[in-house]
Amino acid sequence: MGFESSESAVAVLGLEGFVLLAAVEVDGELHQLVETRAGIVGCSVCGGRALSKGRRRTKVRDLSCGGRPVVVVWVKRLWRCGDADCDVRGWSESSPLIAPRASLTERARAEACRRVGRDNHAVAQVARSLGVGWATVMNAVRDYGTPLVEDPGRIGAVSALGLDETAWQRANATRHTSFVTGFVDIVAGRLLDIVAGRSARVVEDWLEKRSENWLAGVAVKLAHAALVVDPFHVVRLANLAVDDVRRRVQRDELGHRGRKGDPLYGIRRLLLRADERLSEVARARMEAGLAAGDPDDELYVTWQAKEALRWMYAARTMVVAELRFDAFVTAAKSSVVPELHRLAKTMTKWRTEILAHHSTGASNGPTEAVNLLIKKVLRVAHGFRNLDNYRLRLLLHCGVKWQTPQATRIRGRAPRLVA
Question: Do 98 and 108 reside in the same domain of the chain?
């Protein structure tokens, strides 16, 4: 198909300063023949009027249109200076929308960055859809994504800071497992930064780069603020103690690890479930399993301690929470279960930070949610070898607020009568 240039055709093209001459479908792709609106052109050195040297066609990939790949065929004008004394021999016209020797238009490069960053598409997938190489798309992600990530105003004010570590490279024959520390704005649920390593020194170095006003605004996690141990990790330690006791008891009783049909192995998941979420049938199963496989009630006592620790988090005031916490520690230390002694020792060491949850209300849940996104990015990319690319991809997906215009709704709701 082909059609003459018109204002409507230029509007469909969407490239300011260009005129659409024709559109032809070639092998399932839409080739758009364009030229600039250039009139009189002067030499950039002497200012003299330029003379035409002919034209040259340049092909670049653009955004898809109507489900078809698009190739922009730019009929470039070639110029030479009309002044014989000028040192400029010749040049071709240029446009900020299409860089010299580029494979993609700038809007296609920006869209590639958005797809990789915001939508978490694989770089190779975007490259295949645009018909270019992996490096071409990754260069676009760096060029458009780096200013977003390094924007001084991106982090903003933070009142609660969450920290967690993740492994970004697994160990193999030539390297150890590599870890990074993530800094998360707990209130906004947004990734602030990723730093190599997982030591206290790494955290201190990152905080030293922040301004005093920014540090003063953080009420939870800094040295002058309340350090909070997340309830998820506390209850997880209690669940691990339950699992450890269950395994030890069933080995002592049966002489082997848990198998299908063993009484304690059959209730292993019920023991980790919250007491209030047990149905009557589930509770009867758990009690029957304990009666058959826990002759000294060691597992039952550990399960009760786990529930007592959870009950502590249900307290509405700090005073009640302290009483319940101390009661848990006293009961655990007085029991004959060694795993409970170990758990009580850990809880006592972190008593202040655990109880700080009741004074701040802070939870590390948003940090765990960001970790799920981090792992998703890692899976989509099938792993990373470059830490800078890893950090950029994560921050573009989890730490940048994209200003993408939303499509206007055509209908407010579905029509009542529709074929």
Answer: no
Do 238 and 252 fall within a single domain? yes
User: Residue 301's closest CA among 241, 236, 345?
Assistant: 241
37 in a structural domain = yes
Residue 404 located in a structural domain: no
Average pLDDT over residues 113-133: 95
Residue 120's pLDDT band (cuts 50, 70, 90): very high
Average pLDDT (146-153) is 92
Q: What's the pLDDT tens digit per position in 248-274?
A: 999 999 999 889 889 999 999 999 999
**Is residue 244 domain-resident?**
yes
Cα(266)–Cα(258) distance, integer angstroms: 9
Each residue's pLDDT tens digit, 328-348: 999 999 999 999 999 999 999
Residue 201 tokens, joined: 């020194």
Same domain as 244, residue 295: yes
* Chosen domain end from 336, 360, 384: 360
Number of domains comprising the chain: 4
Its pTM surpasses 0.85: no
Q: Where in the sequence is the domain holding 320, given as residue range(s)? A: 231-360
Beta-carbon contacts of 306 under 8 Å, excluding residues fewer than 6 positions away, are 235, 238, 239, 241, 242
